[in-house]
Amino acid sequence: MLPNPTLDQLQVFLTVAESGSFSAASRMLNRAQSVISYTIANLEAQLEMPLFERSGSRQPKLTDAGRVMLEDARRILSDLQVMRARVKGLKSGLEAEVAVAISVMVPVHATVDVLREFRDRFPYVALRLDTGELGSMLELVASGKSTIGIGGSVLKQDDSLVIERIGHSFMLPVAAPTHPLAQLGRPLTLTDVREEVQLVVTDASSLTNGKDFNVLSYKIWHVSDIATKHQLIRGGLGWGGLPASFIMEDLQKGRLVPLALDAYDQSEYPIYAVRKVDNPPGPAAAWMIEAFSSRLSRCPNQADFKAAVEMFHPDEKRLAAE
């Protein structure tokens, strides 16, 4: 017959092992010492092996088998504590899972900071994270696959969605320092960029299907995501716009240079928190929206960003300021 120890037996076993004696365990658990001894004896009978050496010492000493079983007992009781905490959270209205869709336009440092604090505040709430380009965030929320969305590109009003502005971002045209456009050393015109390869993200979302943003060149390379676009631009294979916060380190270290191109729209655009009207956020999701709002409202604006670029590239101050 397979052993079937109870959770109470495992708790008593763990308490005896950690307290160092049967008498100490009886005080900690507020039970008679005889009850503690009886419980351990029943557990050993269940397992058909001794857990403590009782001869030659007044204090119980774990056997080799006892040391192995102790690790299993700790793991099982730890899992029980997780289950209890999750049940308590669910009873109080806390979600079992938060599904969030985050646009690549959202500054990475803000996302990392929010998710780190989310993990610490809600250790028993599962998280499902989707990232995407342009309209995919809206589609994930509208379809119900994501509880909330954080991003931009709200291209049309939808009465089924609650849309709240919580911050801003902007795109910056850049190229590798070895790229011909970066080598011109002056403000660029449309003529300068027309014959140079421009890298453009093609969004899989139906909301932006067929739409191009800030496309100025005649030669277009379409890529599926921002990360690929970023690497190709850094590799000198073309120029294009990237989220300003996404490339700050590259600009500081000279891996990319900003292009002074008036024809490229660099105006700030809003970042929104999006959710369905009929699916209001629970405590954890509501906290996440507020946390993103707090961090994104403090993001640098264009003037701050250009000042930072000038600090690391004083020789390009004129280009960055234009």
TrEMBL record:
Gene Ontology MF terms in the entry: DNA-binding transcription factor activity; transcription cis-regulatory region binding
Protein name, as recorded: HTH-type transcriptional regulator TtuA
Keywords: DNA-binding, Transcription, Transcription regulation
Domain of life the protein comes from: Bacteria
Keyword NAD: no
Originating species: Rhizobium hainanense
Domain HTH lysR-type: 5-63
Family (UniProt): Belongs to the LysR transcriptional regulatory family.
Function: Transcriptional regulator of the ttuABCDE tartrate utilization operon.
